[in-house]
């Protein structure tokens, strides 16, 4: 590509430099832990065979990790009397699942290579293997993330987009992470797997016009407007959008699976690259629930 204008070329250079400094690589463990990927793959397959929804839950864990100060395993840290992690943040509390599955994977990975594979990378690989196990698209997972020794409850409350966000809020939340509107729409296609609690979408189905009315009516049957049922589960798809500039892309994805799959895979790689800790930053945790 020709380089005619100075400022865009400079921008392109800095963009490149920023990506290069992340130092992730698809072959990161090929000599230090050649069995890592297959160990994670087999454990994810077993967990998804036992309960298909676990694939959705593991995918979401990686998202909630990456959007909070980068993909650094912070979402996995337990609260202690002297440490507050991210697990009680509004989007996470009584909602994230799969921590026990990650513990199981981590102990199997530790058994083949002690303290080599980070929890942040386990989340990235588990997300990819979950999508594969549920019939979604493949992608090359970049590796070499290290684990945070800190977490941020505040960032978890502010950086993970709320289900009450409007389209502009969503677009800007993703833009802050270097993700485009196309990435946002493609990634939201993750909601074609998994479940949501009534409490997460009650407002949408009773009080909003930007939702398909027959979908709203059908969801109301298992989600009362008041008097309980907060934890009743329903499939999620189509609850986030309705009436806006992204509708045509949503329609494209619903009729063109190949296009959805390739955009989703590309966006997963980008999401996995959000501010990783690399080199000698952070640590490789022995136990994903606590710092070493
Ligand atoms: C666009 C912004 C997003 C919003 C507002 C959002 C919101 C939500 C909400 C409210 C739930 C239900 C939680 C509950 O009721 O307990 C949910 C579930 C889920 N989300 Fe998202 N989400 C977003 C983006 C994403 C992304 C980027 C991914 C992954 C790539 C993702 C994957 C999932 C999955 C798989 C579930 C189901 C989890 C399960 O069944 O355990 N979401 N999301
Ligand atoms: C998290 O959920 C627990 C159990 O339902 C509840 O007792 C607690 O108040 C919640 N914490 C926050 C910060 O919402
Ligand atoms: C609908 O909106 C009204 C007015 O803001 C509020 O009082 C009511 O609780 C909402 N209903 C539901 C089911 O969210």
UniProtKB/TrEMBL annotation:
Residues 216-237 are annotated as: Disordered. This is Peroxidase. It catalyses: 2 a phenolic donor + H2O2 = 2 a phenolic radical donor + 2 H2O. Its cofactor is Ca(2+); heme b. The record marks 60 as: Transition state stabilizer. Its EC number is 1.11.1.7. The lineage of its organism: Eukaryota, Viridiplantae, Streptophyta, Embryophyta, Tracheophyta. Residues 23-292 form the Plant heme peroxidase family profile domain. Ca(2+) 2 binds at residue 192. Substrate binds at residue 161.
